[in-house]
Amino acid sequence: MMDRLNGPPPLMIVSDLDFTMVDHEDPENLSLLRFNSLWEAYHRQFSLLVYSTGRSPTIYKQLRKEKPLLTPDITIMSVGTEIAYGESMVPDSDWEQCLNPNWDKDIIIQETAKFPQLIPQSDTEQRPHKVSFFLETPNSSEVIKALSERLEKYKLDVKIIYSNGTALDVLPKGAGKGQALAYLLRKFKANGRTPLNSLVCGDSGNDAELFTIPEVYGVMVSNAQEELLQWHAENAKNNPNIIHSSERCASGIIQAIGKFSLGPNVSPRDIKDFGKCRVNVFSPGYEVVKFYLFYERWRRAEVEKSDQNFENLKSSFYPLGTFVHPCGTEQPMKKCTDTMERLYGDKQGKQYQIWLDRVSTSQIGSDSWLVKFDKWESTGEERYCCLTTVLLTTKQAEESFTWMHIHQTWLDGLEAKEPSVWFL
Ligand code: GLC
Ligand code: MG
């Protein structure tokens, strides 16, 4: 993962998932898709995306199947007790080793069993360094107090975290989302890769620790839980680097990027007409994000089917270039533009969405680039994904790219049964 970066990342975002990155009240995932296109167009290449979730690996992977979540560089799971790197999620066993001293899961299970108010969570959520329960709010603080007094007798180094007014986790004292982040920052420092800026994002009790790490910016999203707001009022009220956004979830994260001037903060998804757009961004990553947004709108008939729009599209494809469809057939680019014309509006009124993940660019000549990314597309419940490689060139005088060649292959398990439903 760090090989991708040549130096310190300009920005590291460390975000909680449920009700922070993911808005479970937004069935169309609009704010998440806004974040995705912002991240992939401008930040992916040099910056770091870190998720920090209470979920175990099992239900984290489930969430990734349900929601259009980008692939993070690092995944911190089970309330900061498990850290994994990269796409393949290589576990950090050193971190788990660190959590062993003075941790005795058996004693915790034995002692918590004496509290009838504590209802054990599912087996997937019981982890080597995390024991989790449900606990209803009314007298939760008394239960927590009594439990911690009882555990103190055993001289174990544990901490109890209460989140969402429903969940209680018992963890090693050295664990938690804050400690896991501090550990990562120490590792980066040792490699001379400390991010220039870090932004932590959260909504509930187990996120509070993230806001205690020195020198990070923080955003509590507008929909943050009472327990987090109260913690903030009591502990961090005067810290100007922490805001309570006025927008929900991922939109609140975008708001914080702007507020703290942490880099580009206009999501390409918010640009309704790229032709009229005055921000002239010349970057291959931005180019592919922009194209696929246009393409989504074209098929949903949300852009006008004007000659102008169609000419722009045509002129960005090199007619003699080749497109290799994921099922293996080849066609000239010219045919792509014809198909495209025909597909105008075929997804009108449907929940048709496109997002790109893992956009990476390499310059291969003075005027040519290879851009590689996962192109996702969903219509309601169906979801497909192709690893996509595009060869882009530019003419010095023109501030635009030409698409010379496109090659797609299905990502394992995400192929369309009927290949004709996939076009580009
Ligand atoms: C997630 C986990 C759960 C934990 C809660 C609060 O929902 O699945 O086990 O108790 O976060 O940290
Ligand atoms: Mg949350």
Give a short synopsis of this structure:
With 424 residues, the protein is an alpha/beta fold.
Descriptive tags:
single chain; 424 residues; alpha/beta; eight-stranded mixed beta sheet; six-stranded mixed beta sheet; 29% helix; binds alpha-D-glucopyranose; binds magnesium ion; Sucrose_phosphatase_pln/cyn; Sucrose-phosphatase; EC 3.1.3.24
Task: Describe the structure in your own words.
Residues 284-411 form the Sucrose-phosphatase C-terminal domain. It is a single chain. Strands 5-4-3-2-1-10-11-12 form an eight-stranded mixed sheet, sandwiched between helices. The chain is built from eleven helices and 18 strands. The two termini are 28 Å apart. It is of the alpha/beta class and 424 residues long. The site of magnesium ion has 6 residues, from loops.
Bound molecules: alpha-D-glucopyranose, magnesium ion
Sheet of most strands: 8 strands, mixed
Total beta strands: 18
Q: How many angstroms does the end-to-end distance come to? A: 28 Å
Strand portion: 25-35%
Structural class: alpha/beta
What integer value in Å does the Rg equal? 24 Å
Number of helices: 11
Topology (elements, then pairings):
Layout: E1 11-15, H1 30-43, E2 48-52, H2 57-66, E3 74-77, E4 82-85, E5 90-91, H3 93-98, H4 105-112, E6 119-120, E7 131-134, H5 140-152, E8 158-163, E9 167-172, H6 177-190, E10 197-202, E11 217-220, H7 226-235, E12 242-244, H8 249-259, H9 284-299, H10 307-316, E13 317-324, E14 330-332, H11 333-342, E15 352-365, E16 368-379, E17 382-394, E18 401-410
Parallel strand pairs: 1-2, 1-10, 2-3, 10-11, 11-12, 13-18
Antiparallel strand pairs: 3-4, 4-5, 6-7, 7-9, 8-9, 13-14, 15-16, 16-17, 17-18
Helix pairs in contact: 1-8, 1-9
The site of alpha-D-glucopyranose has 11 residues, from strand 9.
